[in-house]
Structures are given as C-alpha cells and as structure tokens.
Amino acid sequence: MNLRELQYLVAVDEERHFHKAAARCFVSQPTLSGQLKKLEQELGVLLVERNTRQVAMTDAGAAVAEMARKVLADVKGIQEIAQGFEDPMAGELHAGLIPTIAPYLLPVIIPALGKAYPKLKLWLHEYQTSVLLEKLRRAELDFLILALPVETDKFSELDLFKEAFQLALPSGEDLASQPMITMGDLNNREMLLLEEGHCLRDQALDVCFMAGATENAAFHASSLETLRFMVAEGMGMTLMPELAVPKKQTKKDAIRYIPFKDPKPSRRIGLLYRKGSYREQAFRNIQGLIQGKVSDL
Fold this sequence. Notes:
Blueprint: H1 3-15, H2 18-25, H3 29-43, E1 48-50, E2 55-57, H4 59-86, E3 91-97, H5 102-116, E4 120-126, H6 129-137, E5 143-148, E6 155-170, E7 190-194, H7 199-211, E8 214-221, H8 224-232, E9 238-241, E10 255-259, E11 266-274, H9 280-295
Parallel strand pairs: 3-4, 3-5, 7-8
Antiparallel strand pairs: 1-2, 5-11, 6-9, 6-10, 6-11
Helix pairs in contact: 1-2, 1-4, 2-3, 5-9
C-alpha cells in the first residue's frame, strides 16, 4: 500500500467517475484503475463496484477512503512541519478562492508574490465557498481567500481587507448622473443578483434588505461578468465589489459605477487556514503582501 493508491481511492470516492478521478490525479484511467485493483488485492476486499453506468463504493471502500483522507491529511501535516523549519516561503501551497474574488485579486497579487517569494509555487483553485471549506478540511487545500465570516471553528482566519460595493447600473438610468448615492437611493429598486451558492448573493441580499430594495427573481446570474453583461444590456442594476469595478470610466460606457456615501456597504475579505498549521508564517507573510497591494489600488 502506498500514498498514491490512497489518493486514487479518495479521488474515485469523491468523483464517482474513473475518468474524472484520473484527470484529477494527472494519470491515465488504466493506470488509476490498475492501481486500485492492486490495492484491493493487497487488502483482500472489494473497494469499488464497477459497471458500465456508474462507479459505486462498497461499504469497505467508503470506510477505507475515509481513513485514507485522514492519512493523507497527516502526511500533509508532516510535509508542512518540514517545510516550515526549512523555509516557510518555499515549496508548494494550494490556495482556494471564491469566483467573485479570484479574477480581480489574482492579477494584482500574483506578480508581487512571484517577485517577493520566488521559491514559492502556488496552485490556484476556484470554487464556491462550501466546496472550498470542505477541501480545506480534507487538507486538499492549504488556505482560502474568501468573504468572512464563515461558520466553522476548525479554521483560523486572518483579515485581509474590506471591500466596498458600488452600484452598477445602465448609463441611462436616473441615478446614473449622481456622483455618489446613499443606501436610501435603493429603496423600492429591483436588483439583479447571483444564483444560489455564491456568498456574494447573501451579502447583496443583506444590503437590499437594509436599503429597502428587492431582488429581480426572474434572472439569477452565474458570475459577476454575466451580471455586468445584463446591466450593460439595460436589464437592471446590481451591486459590484470594488475590485471588479473598472479603474477608468467614460461617458460612452454602457454601465455607470457609483460609490456609496458613508456608511458604505461592504464585505470583509480574509484568509482561512487549518488551526495549528505549520505554514502559519507563510500565511501571515501572504496576508501582509495582499494588504499592501490592495491599499495601493
């Protein structure tokens, strides 16, 4: 039995598909299947039921996969200890980011991280919050950048920055001529929002509730860029996080972005990692770099 076989088993348990599990592990499907058969022979028990339609775990397979997750997490911890003593800013780190942050923050920080810490290799993963938290718990990711707070006591958090919202609306709307607006200006307005699963949707709903605005229930977007397209087409208005707002605007633009007067609606962005991680110093160094770059914007 080796760690690679355990990784294959966990991948099959979570993907329930040999091709997807193999792609996730960066091996061919025959290689993955062959290694699992070898593991079954070594353990003397069937772990995976195979047929032409689907992959199912046996009771033994599910139990072994759960134990394998713990073993792989412990191995990850050992690697973190060794890396922390050698050089906390060298080696690999797997970072997870939510979709409403990743496309806008990464271009700002990745060049700076590469310059400041050339020995650090970052693997970047983009998922919604619930998936990120589960992957962090299973030690598949080392840290997350997402909107806080999250309901868990298993992780430690570091504050990164507060991100204000701006109102994005068609340039022909009556509010488009205002240099700044208040929350009261949204009273009785209808807002375009993201679909279920995005934490930004919940934050925007909170703002709508406080401002007396309502949700446009006829359309839910899958991304901020879809929301931006809908606003540009004159379909309504939405709240846009500040990092996603273009730095330059002209009178010819189809969308106007208007900041709020104080108190500005905003969201809190932070870094999350497993309690007791030996890479904590690396996370704190990344925290400082991000705070510096965002403050310069």
